[in-house]
Amino acid sequence: MQAMVDGYLSGLKVGDGVSFGRMTLFPVFGQAESPLRYRVLSEALADGAVEVRERASATVPELWLVNRSDAMVLVLDGEEVVGGRQNRMVNASFLIGAKSEVAIPVSCVEHGRWHDVAPRFGGGEATYFSLRREKEQQVRENLRATGRPTADQGAVWDAIAAKQRETRTRSATGAMNDIYRERAQDLSGYERALPVVEGAVGLAVAINGRMAGADLFDQPDTAARLWPKLVRSYAMDALDGERAEPVAKERAERLLRRVVGARIESFPSIGLGRDLRLEGDGAVGSALLFEGIVVHLALFRVHGRRSPGETGRIASASARRRMQRRPNIE
Fold it and tell me: pTM of this prediction?
């Protein structure tokens, strides 16, 4: 597995960065086209090929996914699904087999609702970067302890509440999606300024003058389909703060090198393949590996103990008590 990840990383090339607001984006290019063929979740949900719904006995940390199509489906780490009894985000990247059903581990991103608004879930945003970074550490620790990619629900709720305060937004149900909705005009500015780069297999991003992380895929088509929501997810952490100078390309190249030869822990994925967790020199990450191919690799730069834009919040004792008291949480 080490050779597969290092081989993938060694074949990547960082392009010139483009800066807008407090963010610099570097397209990343690969050398070889992946033979894998799959769909992304949001498109499969939109045309009904995939259905996501509450389990028969609804619980917060799991949803039921049904793939009716003849194609595999990529579910992205941090991807939001909206509807059901409350909006959720996916805890890791999964590749779901054709004609299959599976329970997927999720976290609630809408604290104040537990009633149905729709029987099935639709596609939403990609969770903003700093929350993904915080969640990655929680998932890593729980994989080690239990083998399950679960997060700290109390910490997730606290982080979303703090982001609402930081972005000066309101939500009657504490929904992350409402933050995106209220800041849609600001986010669309980033999306227009940082469009899809043809041929790129992913992007590396700096926020407020510091490298934040990267999302990298096995093929340009996947990157192109997920690019707009990923740009918005990084931009959410770049909306506020001090304006910084653009970041040099060499720093993005160093970010990728930081996980070459990284310590790798391997866990069974909920779907196909393996869930890998990487710990390198000043960076951590996760990768979905299937048939020797890195389908998705997410990197998080670690500056000291925290990443740029990361809240660094952990669940307080009161938040953990709220989580334990909340009905239907297993």
Answer: 0.91
C-alpha span between 19 and 28 (Å, rounded): 15
**Pairing relationship of beta strands 72-75 and 38-40 according to DSSP bridges:** parallel
Over residues 31-68, the pLDDT tens digits come to 888 999 999 999 999 999 999 999 988 899 999 999 99
Cα–Cα distance for residue pair 228/244, rounded to 1 Å: 23
For residue 186, CA distances in Å to 8, 180, 215, 219, 235 come to: 35, 9, 22, 29, 9
- Render pLDDT for 300-318 as a digit per residue (tens, 0 to 9): 999 874 433 443 443 333 3
Q: What is the tens place of the pLDDT at every residue in 169-222?
A: 999 999 999 999 999 999 999 999 999 999 999 999 999 999 999 999 999 999
Q: What is the DSSP string of 168-203?
A: T---TT-BHHHHHHHTHHHHHHHHHHSPPPTTEEEE
6 touches 260 (CB < 8 A): yes
| Six-digit token string for 60 | 């917060």
Dist CA 175 CA 133 (whole Å): 19
For residue 241, give both structure tokens.
């703060």
Residue 146 host element (H or E): helix 129-146
Question: Cβ distance 30 to 47 under 8 Å?
Answer: no
Helix-helix angle 220-235:129-146, to 10 degrees:
110
Name the CA dihedral angle for 145, 151, 155, 157, rounded to a multiple of 10 degrees.
Answer: -160
- CA 263 to chain CA centroid, nearest Å: 21
